[in-house]
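Cont'd.
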Amino acid sequence: MDLAFTPEEQTFREEVRAWVHAHLPADIAHKVHNALELTREDHQRWAQILGAKGWLGFGWPKEFGGPGWTAIQKHLFEEECALAGAPRVIPFGPVMVAPVIMAFGTPEQQQRFLPGIASGKVWWSQGYSEPGSGSDLASVKTRAERQGNTYIVNGQKTWTTLGQYGEWIFCLVRTSTEGKPQTGISFLLIDMKSPGVTVRPIIMLDGGHEVNEVFFDNVEVPAENLIGEENKGWTYAKHLLSHERTNIADVNRAKRELERLKRIAKREGVWDPATGGAAASRFRDEIAKLEVDVIALEMLVLRVLSAEKSGKNSLDIAGLLKIRGSEIQQRYSELMMLAAGPFALPLIREAMEAGWQGDAAAGALGGFPGGEVGNAPLASTYFNLRKTTIYGGSNEVQRNIVSQVVLG
Amino acid sequence: MDFDFSDDQEQLRDAVRKYVDKGYTFERRRAAEKAGGFDRAAYAELAELGLTGLYVPEDNGGMGLGPIDGMVVMEELGRGMVLEPLPHALIAGAVLAGYADAATRAAWLPGIASGEKLVVLAYQERGSRYALDAIAGKAHQAPGGYVLNATKSIVAAGDKADAYLVSAKVNSVMGLFVVERESAGVSTRGYNTQGGGRAAEIVFKNAPAQLITTQGQAALEHAVDIGIAATCAEAVGVMDKTLDITADYLNTRKQFGVAISSFQALRHRVADMKMQLELARSMSYYASLKLNAPATERRAALARAKYQLGNSMRFIGQQAVQLHGGIGVTDEYIVSHYFRKLTELEMTFGDTLHHLGEVSARMQDTAGVFA
């Protein structure tokens, strides 16, 4: 047993760190470190920088043009990116659909779709959830009817993250109503520019436009866009869901945000009991609890990675990682907001964009109330992250899965 | 980065598990508890397995093993709620090996390794709570050595041990001493503890003492950290077994015509227990992996671990009793004994709020994690 990474892994980390620091645009890192709004262009710019290096598909094997990294190298790469303030790789293309195309697609499909994903040029969206489906993904109702060489798709997807930018969408569609719900599902790639596709925004509680409804009205999809066999889509979807076990915990981002929380607490006078008194003492203890939570989560993640590396023991704790990781995300955003207290309350949307100064000439009446623009996004982030315990299989569904492991 | 156990460690685990399963049954433990909470014969059996000499160097008659080996052993002893205080043998072995001169090591370590000498840490005083240095105990030089005056509380197996590692101040410097129980001026009052084991109040009145080190604060901190790591590992074993017992019960017990494990309210409670167990196991690894780190890093790490373990212990113990229903609050059924043991371990070597304070006071403005 050893907590230290091997010298090779350490060298790898340093190489990644040096490269990220040299190539991550400062304006993007600034936005990430301060939870300011990222545009489509910001995401695309970073994706294409990674793509040019061959690292956007950082989980890909060498045969498909990826770096062929081990689970630990992938973890270190994601950690260095997160700590440097890189935006998360938008997972739908490189992390989600690409492995399915690699495992189950034809050579033609691989040649057609993978280059656009690897370079970051094509924006993919995910079409799994439907109205009413919740965590029960197999309840797919969107229909795809085969007519000759074409599927006619009718139905609706929802919670489509950043679907307003999407160019392609991978969908679970129902191609049969016979047998169990899981057996009649197919995995279809759909060009979002096709006639009959409509994207409608869902405005979230924080006022942000992050998710969408996607409507399919007699959309014609060439049969060559079917992945694998008809009615086997559930198997492929499960492959996708099982592909990334540890990154759902998002521990790397939690480490970065823990540091940010400490900066905010310091700025707001609730960090040092010597100057902030009992209020600082109470608040500092809450940060200390979170720090232990983050370390324990990191240890949990490292245990899973180690088990993958050695193959000696398997750890069936993906559900725990999801539950704990999401709870921690919610907790740090909550503490950031509480650190600012009433100064987290002014809702001034422009102040969440980079560079906003307000009317500097107006003095106290011109900028963000209290004079600290860094407080502007705190409540919105807190509201936004309530999603984390709901999506990806709600934490209650995860508890069902965990209890299955213990109780049978 | 590697969390696998070596083949030797797996063999050590198997050997201890076999002993606990066959040699340290619940019935035997119950009898030992009724007889005072300490069984010298059982302690001798631990010694025969080599466990009392785990941290004693090989040239002093021990096994010279490290923290991960200690962790493996303590997990297994925890599964059987073994009463005899092996953590103190680990502490005495490591502290004497690390801080005493050659003559003192030669005088004590072989006996500790063989199990003939049980040496326990006597450091807690009524007024000091968990602060190691806030003690009234004093020692001064006298012809042929030192003379020690102190009153120490909740000393593990204190009226059965052969000698103590005692903290006492020489002028204002913290010293660590060895005092033998049968020396003049040592009086003890033993009692059972809530966790099933044994402890004692000990009064040292002008007792002859042998100085181990005047780096007493450093040695004592080290001793307590070894104790924390051992307690964390022991607690993991206790919790692991507690969850097993609870899962079996839920799958067996029927209400309204079905096994109560079919009720989602209970299943989610079990999932939360599993969460606390795995977080605890992770932090127990962390504790043992940091036990040989430089003192500042080690102290911070061990406080974090004990904070997590304390929370996990209280949660799992309380939930296990609740999920058992009425039988969970009886003495007859095993789960209440696990709950009592967990409660005791939470307050051993610093409780959860104490360690939260330690974590908070030591917190840096960086993330404080690995990268």
